[in-house]
């Protein structure tokens, strides 16, 4: 378990994650920092879900700034895949049994009940809370399907957010589709890593993803720097008044701290 979150139910806890594979193994201009990439891909750690939870894929990005000021950009698609290991499923059920036993004990303690008369001393409110606990805070290996979070990430020298997003979504669809893609998955990964060049300044580049072509455009030397992030999302997340306030603070050169879960 990552962090001190044992008070949370097992499905709400986070667990230690690790990099399963990365390609290429290393490149001179951008040495692979496994710990940094692992933390930035899964800042909250590994998490589990069941069929009752929302498991929609989510995309986020990060920046790695090196000592010389150079930057590399990461784009991460997080999704949930079914846990096929019976050992892990059994361990999750055991965690729930331990957790619910502790919760049951705390409810009894708050009711000042003795071991001799558990049933008679728990009042109606505590009984209701226990019923909710058993109903919403449980994992049954015979009834529930367990899912675990997983990431696929692209690390690039320029922030081509839309192109990376489209490629990762197409790759995810190929992985989860009942029908196999036209070519093996490795060929698409090899293509984007070794055969798709960076577009020259002021030019556009069109390359093929798994299902559809993808276009990315690089500003010219005298144009504004590349900003491929949709402004609409900023307005949706912050709201108009907050965004105006942030922009005002930027113009006044004030220090700005954005705090988010």
UniProtKB/TrEMBL annotation:
Domain UDENN, first and last residues per copy: 1-261
PROSITE patterns, alphabetized: DENN
Protein name: DEN5B protein
UniProt KW keywords: Guanine-nucleotide releasing factor
InterPro entries: cDENN_dom, DEN5A/B, DENN_C, Tripartite_DENN, uDENN_dom
Source organism per UniProt: Irena cyanogastra
Pfam families hit by this protein: DENN, uDENN
Gene3D superfamilies (UniProt xref): 3.30.450.200, 3.40.50.11500
Highest taxon listed in the record's lineage: Eukaryota
Parts forming coiled coils: none
MF-aspect GO terms: guanyl-nucleotide exchange factor activity; small GTPase binding
Keyword presence, Transmembrane helix: no
